[in-house]
Amino acid sequence: MAAVLLLTAYGILMIRSAVTGAPAFEPLPAQQTRFAIAGVFITLFVAAIDYRFLTSSHWYIYAGLVALLIFVIVGGQINNETRRWIQVTPSFQIQPSEFGRILLAVTFSQFLASRQHLIHRFSNTITTLIYMGVPVALIFIQPDLGMSVLFMVMWFAIIWLAGLPMSHFIALAVIASIGLVVAFPLLADYQKERIYTFLDPESASEDDIFNIEQAEIAIGSGGPFGKGYKQGTQSQQGFLRVQHTDFIFSVVTEEMGLVFGSLVVLGLMGFILMRIIRVISMTPDPAGKYMCAGIAVILFFQTTVSVGMNVRILPVTGLTLPFVSYGGSSLVTLYLAIGLVQSVLMRHRKQEFG
User: In the predicted model, is pLDDT for residue 354 greater than 50?
Assistant: First the structure.
């Protein structure tokens, strides 16, 4: 929890630097602070609840999530040509897919644990794929490719931990290849452009690669110790876009450098992941084990993709850097996830002797 709080505080400081000189964004650090405080209370509340109460209600949670995602498609708020948000008040929106990644870790873990005896049947594998595929399809058409991929990676990791046979993996690889071919034409134009830009940057237009190049310049020019807080040229002079969300890692590395920037952020995230893996190894309950594994995968995958797209080894997907990037729904749901891990940890001995 200390590492989570340190990472969040570090993120708020970097958001404050990233929005300097942009009056429209100046309230964001204060908003992120309020979300963080709310997140701490959510963590404590969720940790106090026996997580098995949630896993036993997994069908209700799953149905509620699917209903929210359908509502987004029908009447959600459109921002930047995507329909991902529900307008709660004139100044407050929620993104159900952000909550969905954590809720689905809960529901799918119990769903799979209850079918553990069927793990060697390929029909069961297809059933789990359909279970995960329904919300993924609803997120894909918002469109949100990054979150869709995250959900499928989480499904893969959890079912692998459950002991899926290698023959099933081979069959799934063939299905996935066919699925990629079918899904690519359905991508939004801007998503296709991102993939084309990543695969063939030389043929991309100047505007398409501008921000990626600025991110590379920012990271490369940061050096070992950075240019100093609020002293970054790319971030402070307006060259880098969406720097408080997608490209916050570039701001961190440019201003704080490798030693006090990148290594601090990645080191804290690595420590958090190690502690979650420890909980996975300690709990004997399959549902608790799979749920913690799903949360670990979410944190690892988002961190890898966010850093990867900043250093140009992965295409831009819009996934944020956990606990560091600005985003109310993202931050609150991550604290919810930490609360779930704490709940599993607090009850593993009761399961051992109960």
Answer: no
* DSSP secondary structure, 61-102, as one string: HHHHHHHHHHHHHHHPEEETTEEEEEEEETTEEE-HHHHHHH
| Maximum mean pLDDT: which of 146-150, 193-197, 287-291 | 287-291
Q: How many C-beta atoms surround the C-beta of residue 171 within 10 A?
A: 14
Look up the domain containing 277 and give its range. Answer: 2-164+200-353
Structure token pair of residue 338: 């930490």
Structure tokens at 162: 């459950």
**183 located within any domain:** no
Residue 180: which pLDDT band, with cuts at 50, 70 and 90? confident
Structure tokens at 63: 């149905």
Distance of alpha carbon 149 from alpha carbon 317, whole angstroms: 10
User: Is residue 194 situated within a structural domain?
Assistant: no
Q: For 151-162, what is each residue's pLDDT tens digit?
A: 999 999 999 998
Q: What is the mean pLDDT of residues 42-55?
A: 94
From CA 189, how far away is CA 248, in angstroms rounded? Answer: 25
| 224-240: average pLDDT | 88
**CB neighbourhood size of 23 (10 A):** 7
Contacts with 119 (C-beta within 8 Å, 6 or more apart), sequence order: 162, 163, 164, 165
Which residues lie closer than 8 Å to 236 by C-beta, 6 or more apart?
A: 17, 20, 21, 230
- Number of domains, the chain: 1
Map tokens 């893969």 to a residue.
Answer: 156
**What is the model's pTM?**
0.90
Cα–Cα distance for residue pair 146/303, rounded to 1 Å: 12
Q: At what angle do helices 145-161 and 286-310 cross, to 10 degrees?
A: 140
Buried/exposed 270-285: b ≥16 CB within 10 Å, e otherwise: eebbebbeebbebbeb
